[in-house]
Fold:
Amino acid sequence: MDDDDLEYTLLNKREVLVYQIPPASSSTGHKADDWKKCIWRGRLRIAGKGKDLSIKLLEGGGNLFAQCAIPGGDYNSYVERVVDSSRYFVLKITNGDRHAFIGLGFEDRNDAFDFNCTLADFKSTWIDREKEAEMPMPSSMPAKDLSLKEGQTIKINLPGGKSRRSREAEAGGYGGGTILAPPPSSGSRRQAP
Structure:
């Protein structure tokens, strides 16, 4: 990360909840239903700086409560969805060699959706595109000229299709129409019960 890179805000949410969480109860992951103790309530800000991403939990006066730094923007190792809700996530908070897991919750499902989309958008915009740009391009071979030369024509035979001339001949020549069957007689009306 270059110190000259500007830090820019990607998402602000006014109210999020932080939970003290027990270890994952199953191999599939954490369950928000197991979280009983809310330890903090405040603001959330996702900021980008170069290729790095940070999720900052801020108190009312703007003081930092906790920060989840995501180097390289690949958030899969730092943010995990819970298995039983779309509004809760597990954040990995690192401090040097030490780390802790905290639960992050949103009261509104739309806020949780915005949070998840912001992370995915950052990754697809900054990380995945750069990886694609670094991939070697396939050797460019000269393109074949598939255009029609002057005087060339294409004939297409469709199965089951007849030419226009044979359809017109069957219809009785040009402008000929088909004869319609007469309408049913009026004596065969249906009587009401």
Notes: The longest helix spans residues 109-134.
